[in-house]
């Protein structure tokens, strides 16, 4: 079993033991690893060093954060950290824990996503206040930020924006907190505030799913 000391997850040997311990989420993690940031050279090779490191880190987190286990979207967060620390998995692991626990991101991934509903409601109110044309178009199309922005918040934009941009956003997030993510979301919507009202619902729904994505 995993001891309390090992669950603290700070020593390098503790990380090594965690990532070598089978997890009930292993099959799900493997599926997601193969489709995480394929545009990045580090993760392009199937079962290459980047993908293997991502699997080990996600497995270790699933065991360490037993009340969450593994949740899709964590793969993008962890992959971004591997890109920052490609030669030091233990450091990437500690940084992932710090993001999730010290910055309260773990609450986004807990069963039934208790914090995510609050985040969606708050972002909708901010959009309503600062981007009234966007808000009016979204109301007309019958959608809110739950439809288009959940992945922004669950992955801290790592699933949509280029990694170089994501790292700059994270630098600001670590200093200024959640408001940085809200500001980035508003900035993305601002760029389409004149386009969105011109689309019919069918095209608008498709557009909202992909407009922020960087190929």
Automatic annotation (TrEMBL):
Annotated protein name in UniProt: Rab-GAP TBC domain-containing protein
GO molecular function: GTPase activator activity; small GTPase binding
Domain of life, per lineage: Eukaryota
PANTHER family to which the protein is assigned, alphabetical: GTPASE ACTIVATING PROTEIN AND CENTROSOME-ASSOCIATED, ISOFORM B, RAB GTPASE-ACTIVATING PROTEIN 1-LIKE
Domain Rab-GAP TBC: 1-177
Pfam families in the cross-refs: RabGAP-TBC
């Amino acid at each position: 079993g995993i001891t309390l000391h090992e669950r603290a997850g700070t020593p390098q040997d503790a990380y090594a033991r965690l990532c070598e311990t089978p997890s009930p989420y292993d099959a799900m993690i493997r599926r997601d690893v193969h489709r995480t940031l394929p545009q990045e050279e580090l993760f392009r090779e199937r079962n290459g060093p980047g993908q293997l490191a991502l699997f080990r880190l996600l497995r270790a987190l699933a065991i360490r954060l037993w009340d969450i286990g593994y949740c899709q979207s964590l793969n993008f967060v962890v992959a971004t950290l591997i890109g920052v620390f490609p030669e030091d998995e233990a450091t990437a692991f500690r940084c992932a824990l710090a993001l999730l626990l010290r910055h309260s991101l773990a609450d986004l991934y807990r069963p039934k996503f208790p914090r995510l509903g609050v985040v969606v409601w708050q972002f909708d109110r901010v959009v309503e206040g600062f981007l009234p044309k966007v808000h009016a178009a979204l109301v007309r199309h019958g959608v809110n930020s739950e439809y288009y922005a959940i992945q922004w918040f669950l992955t801290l934009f790592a699933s949509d924006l280029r990694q170089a941009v994501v790292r700059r956003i994270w630098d600001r997030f670590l200093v200024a907190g959640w408001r940085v993510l809200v500001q980035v979301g508003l900035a993305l919507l601002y760029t389409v505030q004149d386009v969105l009202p011109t689309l019919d619902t069918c095209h608008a729904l498709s557009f909202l799913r992909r407009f922020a994505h960087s190929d």
